[in-house]
Amino acid sequence: MNDNHFENKFDTVFKIENMSIKEMERIEDICIQIVDRSGRTICYSKGCEMIEGLKRENVIGKTIPELYTVNVTEDNPYGSIPLTVLKTGKVMKNNHVKFTTSLGNQMNVISSTYPIFSEDSNQVEAAICIFRDIGDYLKMAQTIQKLEKDLAQEKIKRKSNGTIYAFSDVIGKSPATLACIEKSKKAALSTAPIMIFGSTGTGKEVFAQSIHNESLFSTGPFVGVNCSAIPENLLESTLFGTCKGAFTGADETKGLFETAEGGTLFLDEINSMSVNLQAKLLRALETKHVRKVGGNNEIPINVRIISATNQDPIKSVKDGLLRDDFYYRLAVINLFIPDLKNRLDDIPELVRHFLIHHSVVMGKKITEVSPEIYTILFAHKWPGNIRELKHVIDQSLYLADINDTMLEPRHLPNYIIENHTTHSVLSKYEHAPTGSIKDTLLSIERQMILDAFEKHGNNISETARSLGMTRQNLQHKLRTYDIK
Question: Is the pLDDT of residue 142 over 90?
């Protein structure tokens, strides 16, 4: 029998809110499959094609046993839920089902199946099965559980010394990032002062804490202070402490040097510190003693100093913002963290990290990223670096619909899209056609998939993993773009 026979037969007895079978078959967000009383498929939606990898024209008219592995057991006498509903006429809701397609694809879904009765009798005319793939969600949940278990003990240890991060928390595999990690680990083994230079949002404190946790001072406290956030007249007493009566209302207080004894003192935005205070701090570092404000006694200190600046320290010395002797004392080891725009290879890993850790927390189901997203993200200049990327992904997740499973350009903040020009995209793919952004992005998506597919020797799993998508979605894209 042809397709129209099944559609016409069923359309005469059933419609969902006046929706025809042809309209249901266009739905991608959920999977809809309808079988008639003989168990033959008469409706197979786009969503089913996308997750099962079967083509509608090869499914219509086929029975359940022809399409899937049917296991008849004592507890499951009919072998599948749709066949059970056809035989019993009972509704079967929210069932967790695992099955294998005729192509060998193993599926893991949540399904609800309903009987459809004919209008003139109580006979079951068909069964409609509505289901959604949860395989990726379960994998993500397992990944999160493993991460939480692996990090639980480490975090307990870190929190006791005032840190959150270690080198294992540094996300990125670009040559620039790996070189930075390697140099930082070498620096951690010494006791010399370290100055970290990097733009705002590159992760200077992440590296500072990681160095502390890898160093001989790891059992001591990590104490950080942003020198630009404290007024100049208070920063000195914050660092060195005060004696009672040093000024009106002054009490006996410990400074950060004393608080960080045996550990690391992290001085962020050191370039904002006044030249006068730099001189006092320089003396403390050279003598390894501090004197409280209003006090006369010298207090010995044993503290590792890590400083950070978001401006080129050499330029700051030339501009008179940093004393040259102060710079030489603090920058025995220099560590430069490059901007995100200079390590674009880190973006996919960072995006996946933010998705894994934030999507579930926000109650969203997004587990993968469309290739168009990366095209846009690679073209952006990222003035806010990793902090900006995190903001973009978080905002995109907040704006995504509850049933969205893939991050797409429509989710991105407007300014990212507006800043993205056709020229910047075409610079990566010279043969992409000029025209609308939509046509250009589709062309580039095809080229990205084709390049990755060839790079991985036409291996579906490896190609999907490299592009951050599921096997089923990649198979759908390959068919859409006619990539053999």
Answer: no
CB of 79 within 8 A of CB of 65?
yes
pLDDT-derived band at 206, boundaries 50, 70, 90: very high
- Report the CATH fold assignment for 3-133: Beta-Lactamase (3.30.450)
pLDDT of residue 10: 45
Of 251, 478, 465, the C-alpha closest to 367 is: 465
How sure is the predictor about 149, in pLDDT bands with cuts at 50, 70 and 90?
low
Spatial neighbors of 406 by CB under 8 A, at least 6 apart, are 366, 367, 368, 369, 370, 469, 473
Class of the CATH domain delimited by 343-480? mainly alpha
- Specify the 3-state DSSP secondary structure of 222: strand
Using CA atoms, how far residue 234 sits from 231, 289, 380, in Å, is 5, 20, 40
Amino acid type, 59: V
Q: Is the domain 162-338 a CATH 3.40.50.300 member?
A: yes
Encode pLDDT of 41-55 as tens digits.
999 999 899 889 899
Per-residue pLDDT for 157 more than 80? no
Residue carrying structure tokens 């399904």: 111
Terminal CA-CA length for the chain: 30
Contact residues for 20 (Cβ-Cβ < 8 A; gap 6+): 11
Domain-wise residue ranges, the chain: 3-133, 162-338, 343-480
Assigned token pair, 464: 């999907």
Q: Which helix (H) or strand (E) holds 43?
A: strand 41-44
Q: Which residue has the tokens 């992005």?
A: 441
Say yes or no to pLDDT of 154 above 70.
no
Which tokens is 152 given?
């639980």
- And the tokens for 160? 């006791």
Helices 471-480 & 437-455, crossing angle to 10 degrees?
Answer: 120
At residue 132, the 3 state secondary structure works out as strand
Residue 132 contacts residue 108 (beta carbons within 8 Å): no
Mean pLDDT for all residues in the chain: 85
Q: Does residue 450 contact residue 432 with C-beta atoms inside 8 Å?
A: no
Sorting pLDDT into bands at 50, 70 and 90, what band is 324?
very high
Q: What contacts 467, CB < 8 A, 6 or more positions away?
A: 371, 448, 449, 452, 474
143 Cβ contact list (under 8 Å, min separation 6) = 356
Neighbours of 41 (CB within 10 A): 23
Has residue 2 got a pLDDT over 60?
no
Averaged pLDDT for residues 88-98: 88
Q: What are residue 101's DSSP bridge partners?
A: 68
pLDDT of 374 strictly over 70:
yes
For the stretch 456-462, contacts whose Cβ atoms lie closer than 8 Å and that sit 24 or more positions apart, written own/partner, are none
Compute the average pLDDT of residues 214-238.
Answer: 91
Report which DSSP code applies to 79: S
